[in-house]
Amino acid sequence: MEIIDTHAHLYSAEFDSDRDAMIERAVKAGLTKILMPNIDSESIDGMMALAEKYPELCRPSMGLHPCSVQPENWKAELDLCYSWLRKHPFVAIGECGMDLYWDQSTKEIQAEALEIQCSWALEFDLPMIIHSRNATPECIEIIRPWAKKGAKGVFHCFSGTLEEALEITSMGWYLGIGGVITFKKSDLGSIAKQVDGKYLLLETDAPYLAPVPYRGKRNESSYLAYVNETLGEHLLAGRREIAKTTTDNAKRLFSGL
């Protein structure tokens, strides 16, 4: 059974003690590709080293996380990302977007940084990985005109409303389904049932947002099996069918896979 984790920060320090063993567990669980979105200048070296060590499995994406868009250096951070995009192949632009949960004071420059990275998606013909915590409507508003120009991507760790999900998929964009779907009070399963299944992707966001029964602990890519199974329960489909559908979806969006 082939399965793809479309969002995992395997270069994170949380894995320093057992990274190779963690990756081995992922492979045993059926993971054939793990997409690693960048955060900022401090994460690039670790991400690229991991991509070099596991070139077929660990595939890097280049962008600037909205929480790293800070007044003192965001343009320099973007310049660095752009220089990498010009000299190395990546599977996507990201992780980029807007985050109004942690800091609303940078809203304007977050929006500007997202616009710039949307232009990269067209320039380099790459899909986008969008972070939209407490900012799904704002991200949709910015992305809509770019989608009309041909930009594609995924709203990672989707946490919006059904109406927002339908608007995103109507643009031809995808929804990242992660560990939140296993949480008792989550309505993500209900939303997933009401959108076109060809726009659903599986992700872990490891080391964050571990699914039940590991909620509150460190997440890892092998736990994608719990997300896969829970999504199948909501869609009344077997785990192999869900794995195939979401894997096909991932390959369609991320053509570099």
The name CATH uses for the topology is TIM Barrel
Number of helical segments?
9
Question: Could you give the order of strands across the largest sheet?
Answer: 4-5-6-7-8
CATH architecture type: Alpha-Beta Barrel
Strand content: 5-15%
Structural class: alpha/beta
- Name the helicity range: 40-55%
Tally the structural domains: 1
What do the pLDDT scores average to?
97
The count of strands amounts to 8
- CA(first)-CA(last) distance: 16 Å
CATH superfamily: Metal-dependent hydrolases
Task: Output the helix-strand order.
Answer: EHEHEHEHEHEHEHEHH
Q: Can you describe what's shown?
A:
The chain is of the alpha/beta class and 257 residues long. Helix content is 42%, strand content 13%. The chain is globular, with a radius of gyration of 17 Å. The protein starts with a strand and ends with a helix.
What would you say about this model in short?
This protein has helices spanning 19-28, 41-53, 74-87, 107-123, 136-148, 162-170, 188-193, 224-235, 239-253; strands at residues 3-5, 31-37, 58-61, 93-97, 128-131, 153-155, 174-177, 200-202. By secondary structure, the protein is an alpha/beta fold. The chain is globular, with a radius of gyration of 17 Å.
Summary tags:
257 residues; alpha/beta; TIM Barrel; five-stranded parallel β-sheet; three-stranded parallel β-sheet; globular
Question: How do the strands and helices of this protein lay out in sequence?
Answer:
Blueprint: E1 3-5, H1 19-28, E2 31-37, H2 41-53, E3 58-61, H3 74-87, E4 93-97, H4 107-123, E5 128-131, H5 136-148, E6 153-155, H6 162-170, E7 174-177, H7 188-193, E8 200-202, H8 224-235, H9 239-253
Parallel strand pairs: 1-2, 2-3, 4-5, 5-6, 6-7, 7-8
